[in-house]
Every structure is written in structure tokens, then in C-alpha cells.
Design brief:
globular, Rossmann fold, six-stranded parallel beta sheet, single chain, alpha/beta
Length: 210
């Protein structure tokens, strides 16, 4: 079993630890967190240090793989941390055992796929993506790196979700839709046309409000 460390000891970090334990692929060594005291226990695991100490602790053998437990409110920080360490430290990957994933699907390093998700033939999930519970991603759809799909998102076939996109809970994306990087959708939004300008989109059909 590989030794896993998680950046961020908040709610998402705790969820990642639980998912990793349920996968039976990892031993948890602890968290890295810039806002917690070294040695404190969170969810039963120690704060190993801040992000400045990650590289040395990897070289010392403290952990084998890394995951990022920083959520949708800090999308750019998620990306920055991944890009900062990806050349030197392996990132893990978690796909919950209840998911239905076609064998042709590709899932990038650092990605986390929560329970009850279905991903169809020919789809791809980019690096460092978060795919929350009960998402449906239809055939040949591409999810680019660092994007977040909230629970219950449904995306029809041949769609393209670019990087740093945050789809709100229950969002529905029609087929052959392209969504530009940096877009956010509100709860229950229904996207039926391409989105070419980043911003927050809400409603049925989804329209930009800011």
C-alpha cells in the first residue's frame, strides 16, 4: 500500500482521507496545511508541516503520493499547487468502488471521483479534477484539468468542459456543448448552448449574471 499525504486538512481533506481508506490502496501519513500547527491531529492524522516542507518530506520518504484537499472556493490555488509539485512528486488518484466507469475512460493523476458516478465510453477526466457524488458524464465528453463537478451534475455526450470550470450542484449540460475555462454555474443550471465568456451562469436556460 502506498503512503498518501493530503494538502489541506479542512472538510475536503477529511473526505479525501476517508475515500482513500475505503479504497484500500493507501496508508494515510497526514496533512500539509499552511494554517495549522505542526503535530496537531486532524481526523486522527498529524499535520506534517506547511506546503514549504512538502518536497523535503517526500525526499525523506514520509509519503509516496500526494492529493489536494482544497475545494472549489480556491480553484486557482488548486491549480498552482498541482503545477508546483507535479514534476517532482507523484499525485495519487481515487475512484470510489461504487462508480461505473467504462474501460476506455481516462482519468488523470490527482483526480478524485466520488461515489455513484457514471462515466461512459470514450470520456476523459483531466488531472486534479474533483467529481463529486452521483455525476453522469456521457460518452466522448472531455473534462479538462482542475475542474470541479458538484454532486448530481449531468453532462451529455461530446461536450467539452475546459479547465478551472466549477459546475454547481445539479447542473445539466446538453450534448456537444463547449464551456470555456473559468466558468461557474449555479445550482440546477441548464446549459444548452456553448459558453464562450467566463462568468457565473444560472437558470433554465443558463444565462450569465456576472
Amino acid at each position: 500500500m502506498k503512503k498518501l499525504a493530503v494538502i489541506g486538512s479542512g472538510d475536503l481533506g477529511k473526505q479525501i482521507v476517508q475515500l482513500a481508506l475505503e479504497s484500500n490502496d493507501y496508508i494515510i501519513t497526514g496533512f500539509f496545511d499552511d494554517f495549522e500547527t505542526n503535530g496537531n491531529l486532524v481526523h486522527g492524522y498529524p499535520i506534517l508541516g506547511n506546503t514549504e516542507s512538502i518536497q523535503k518530506q517526500f525526499e525523506d520518504g514520509t509519503f509516496d503520493e500526494l492529493l489536494i484537499g482544497i475545494g472549489y472556493k480556491h480553484m486557482e490555488i488548486r491549480q498552482q499547487l498541482f503545477e508546483r509539485f507535479r514534476q517532482h512528486i507523484p499525485f495519487g488518484k481515487i475512484v470510489h468502488s461504487s462508480c461505473v466507469i467504462h474501460h476506455s475512460v481516462s482519468i488523470g493523476s490527482g483526480a478524485i471521483v466520488y461515489s455513484g458516478t457514471h462515466i461512459d465510453m470514450g470520456a476523459s477526466i483531466g488531472e486534479n479534477c474533483l467529481i463529486y457524488n452521483g455525476c453522469i458524464i456521457a460518452h466522448d465528453t472531455q473534462i479538462y484539468p482542475h475542474s470541479v463537478l458538484s454532486p448530481g451534475v449531468k453532462i451529455a455526450g461530446f461536450s467539452r468542459i475546459e479547465s478551472l470550470v466549477n459546475l454547481g450542484i445539479g447542473t445539466i449540460i446538453s450534448d456537444n456543448v463547449k464551456i470555456v475555462s473559468g466558468t461557474k454555474t449555479g445550482a440546477g443550471a441548464v446549459v444548452v448552448n456553448d459558453i464562450h465568456e467566463a462568468g457565473l451562469y444560472v437558470g433554465i436556460p443558463a444565462k450569465k449574471i456576472k
